[in-house]
């Protein structure tokens, strides 16, 4: 599923210009799982996730999602960054890893954003 919505993210650095992101998928129950992974962080919103991508060298794609793994109901999004753009076909990580509480994690509300400028 492809969406034409564009997102503008301000960089964490005031000196950097704003970047534009194209939504490539939304609300999936799987996260991107590819070899061009850079890093991840926890972010409060998808806008903060794309801003994080803007601040990281060679980042062109941000995948924000809820990694439901016993984080005591936190609303923080996992924000994974990649060097290449991706679509829903690349979202193959559905969770399933057993957590310290004995329950498997799951992925929810997964959104993908490709940097276009």
SSE arrangement:
Blueprint: E1 6-9, E2 19-28, E3 31-32, E4 37-43, H1 46-55, E5 61-68, E6 77-82, E7 91-93, E8 95-98, E9 104-115
Antiparallel strand pairs: 1-2, 2-9, 3-7, 4-6, 5-6, 5-9, 8-9
What would you note in describing this structure?
The chain is mostly beta strands and 117 residues long. The chain contains one helix and nine strands. The chain has one helix at residues 46-55; strands spanning 6-9, 19-28, 31-32, 37-43, 61-68, 77-82, 91-93, 95-98, 104-115. Strands 1, 2, 4, 5, 6, 8 and 9 form a seven-stranded antiparallel beta sheet that branches. Strands 3-7 form a two-stranded antiparallel sheet. The longest helix has 10 residues, at 46-55. The two termini are 22 Å apart. Residues 1-16 have low confidence and may be disordered.
Radius of gyration (CA) equals 14 Å
What's the number of extended β-strand segments? Answer: 9
Give the N-terminus to C-terminus distance in angstroms.
22 Å
In DSSP terms (H or I, runs of 4 or more residues), the helix count works out at 1
Question: Which stretches of 5+ consecutive residues score pLDDT under 50?
Answer: 1-16
Can you write the helix and strand succession as a string? EEEEHEEEEE
What structural class is derived from the secondary structure elements?
Answer: mainly beta
- What fraction strand? over 45%
Largest sheet entry: 7 strands, antiparallel
Rounded mean pLDDT is 86
Q: What is the molecular shape? A: globular
Approximate helicity band: under 10%
């Amino acid at each position: 599923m492809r969406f034409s919505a564009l997102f503008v993210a301000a960089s964490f650095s005031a000196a950097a210009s704003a970047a534009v992101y194209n939504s490539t998928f939304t609300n999936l129950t799987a996260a991107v799982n590819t070899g061009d992974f850079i890093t991840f962080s926890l972010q409060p919103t998808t806008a903060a996730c794309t801003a994080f991508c803007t601040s990281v060298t060679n980042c062109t794609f941000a995948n924000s999602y809820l990694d439901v793994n016993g984080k005591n109901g936190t609303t923080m999004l996992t924000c994974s960054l990649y060097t290449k753009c991706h679509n829903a076909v690349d979202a193959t990580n559905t969770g399933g890893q057993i957590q310290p509480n004995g329950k498997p994690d799951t992925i929810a509300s997964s959104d993908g954003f490709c940097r276009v400028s």
